[in-house]
Amino acid sequence: MSGKAAQSLKEPDRTNPLRIVQLLLRQAVELLGLDADVYEILREPRRFVEASVPVRMDDGRVRAFTAYRSQHTNALGPSKGGVRFHPGVTADEVKALSMWMTFKTAILGLPYGGAKGGVVVDPRRLTSGELERLARAYVDQLVEVLGPDVDIPAPDVNTDERIMGWMSDEYERLVRRHAPGALTGKPLVLGGSRGRREATGRGVVLAIKEAADRLGLRLRGATAAVQGFGNVGGATARLLHALGVRVLAVDDVEGGAYRPDGLDIPALVDYARARGTVKGFPGSADISAQELLTLECDIVVPAALENQVDAEVAEGARCRILAEAANGPTTPEGDEILDAKGIFIIPDILCNAGGVTVSYFEWVQNQTGLYWTEEEVNERLSAKMRDAFADVFRMHLERRVDMRTAAYMVAVGRVAEALAARGWIAPWTMPFKPRA
Ligand code: NAD
User: Fold this and answer.
1) Pocket of ligand 1, candidates 156, 198, 358: which has the most ligand atoms within 8 Å of its Cβ, to mutate?
2) In whole angstroms, what is the distance from residue 125 CA to residue 130 CA?
3) In order along the chain (436 residues), what is the average pLDDT of each group of 10 residues?
4) Nearest atom (ligand 1) to Cα of 327
5) Contact assessment for residue 225 and residue 295, using Cβ atoms and an 8 Å cutoff
6) Which pLDDT tens digit goes with each residue over 289-323?
7) Separation of 293 CA from ligand 1 center, angstroms?
8) Could you tell me if the CB of 354 is within 6 A of ligand 1?
């Protein structure tokens, strides 16, 4: 992001993901020379639902949870995006996440628009029964605006394939027909895709490989640090380790594990599964989030939540590649500092798009009833990530803009092309043809 753009955000907007994504959208519209109508159509979600979701708790009382679903655009297809269960979920965060999904799916060339959902809840405080009733109630409240051709939820922070299984069952119960394509990230037995569980992490590692190739960095023997050890961070650490990258540090919300000559990631995966945290892993030292993100190593992967790489972290950063596995992990000020330091950023909307890509494969398999092998899924994912990286990198070189700006330009150009083709913006306001 340009320095001027970053400065234009005033406190408290500097960490508000919606303001940040709107700024990036506006910048891309201007750099592409598109009509201002494109910004006007895309700056807010097309539809935003806020619901109060009542759930019968185990003690017999009812508790109503605040829930959201944001459907950003359907210009390129049905909207698609995960559901987040977290106490810090806000309306603006969910809106921003839905916009990131639009841009992510556009970069990858998937026939979707962006959506996102969220529930304000700390799921660790719910019993399994309460969690199941909450998942079902969420679908119950939103069923009219969901469906395989309308809006397709998936997992995100604190939601997993077990929760997708309950949601899928609830959706089918309500519409009274089999509809596996209504949600993705489901258990295999309900029509889930092979390779979906680790798809986001696999995509992150594919993007790192593409970046390393272009920077002349050999991955075998390179060093890395990963923030967050959930679905995305865990898979990323495991796949980097399998490639011969020494993962020096990982952490989660409870604490960290640091070993200067590299962690035994397979043993750490087992440890974290048994203990629920990486903290205290034998032979490792604790490490704070700030220390991890500023560790001297080749690759840093923020894979937790938004706004982790702020100005202070960016000042201290000593990596060559920042691979944004999380959505929105870098603040605009952090971004500007990293850019000035010459750190190569793989922007979130490119870096973590492997998850939605395999969700798309899952939906295709559900719609056709023909199921693929894990090798087929992984090969198709590699091809998609390679092409997407090449498109963004080409824009970065040709237009001499940073990788994040380039990613937005590729994405917004494609969405604008669909808006023009639908007649939502006047075709003559399109100054260029984004793709042949
Ligand atoms: P998850 O719930 O499986 O894991 C989140 C991890 O982050 C946990 O290990 C948690 O302990 C850790 N964490 C939370 N706060 C932290 C903090 N302050 N410091 C360090 N660690 C912290 O969630 P996930 O699915 O792995 O999602 C992680 C990020 O990746 C999110 O930004 C999400 O939107 C993004 N993402 C997820 C997917 C997907 O397919 N699951 C796809 C694309 C992007």
Assistant:
1) 156
2) 9
3) 61 84 96 95 98 98 98 97 98 97 98 98 98 98 98 96 98 98 98 96 98 98 97 97 98 97 98 97 97 98 95 98 96 95 98 98 98 98 98 98 97 96 82 54
4) 32
5) yes
6) 999 999 999 999 999 999 999 999 999 999 999 99
7) 15
8) no
DSSP string, 315-372: HH-B-SEEE--SSS-B-HHHHHHHHHTTPEEE-HHHHTTHHHHHHHHHHHHHHHT---
Instruction: Compute the distance from residue 157 Cα to the ligand 1 centre, in Å.
Output: 5
**Would you say the CB of residue 157 lies under 6 angstroms from ligand 1?**
yes
What total number of domains does the chain contain? 2
Q: Is-above-0.85 flag for pTM?
A: yes
202 CA to centre of ligand 1 in angstroms: 15
Last residue of a domain, one of 297, 321, 351: 351
* Catalytic positions, written as ranges: 116
| CB of 156 sitting under 6 A from ligand 1 | yes
Say which CATH number the domain at 51 has: 3.40.50.10860
Distance 341 CA to ligand 1 centre (A): 26
Q: Which two tokens stand for residue 37?
A: 């109508």
Assigned token pair, 95: 């809106």
| Cβ of 158 below 6 Å from ligand 1 | yes
DSSP state of 143: G
Sheet with 113-120, side-by-side order of all strands: 47-56, 62-71, 113-120, 79-86, 151-155
Q: Are 140 and 167 in contact (CB under 8 A)?
A: no
Please indicate, yes or no, if residue 239 is contained in any of the structural domains. yes
Domain span at 271: 199-351
Burial class from Cβ neighbours inside 10 Å (0-12, 13-18, 19+) for residue 184 reads buried
Q: What does the block give as tokens for 357?
A: 């890509």
For β-strands 47-56 and 62-71, DSSP reports them as antiparallel
- 232 pocket-lining for ligand 1 (C-beta < 6 Å): yes
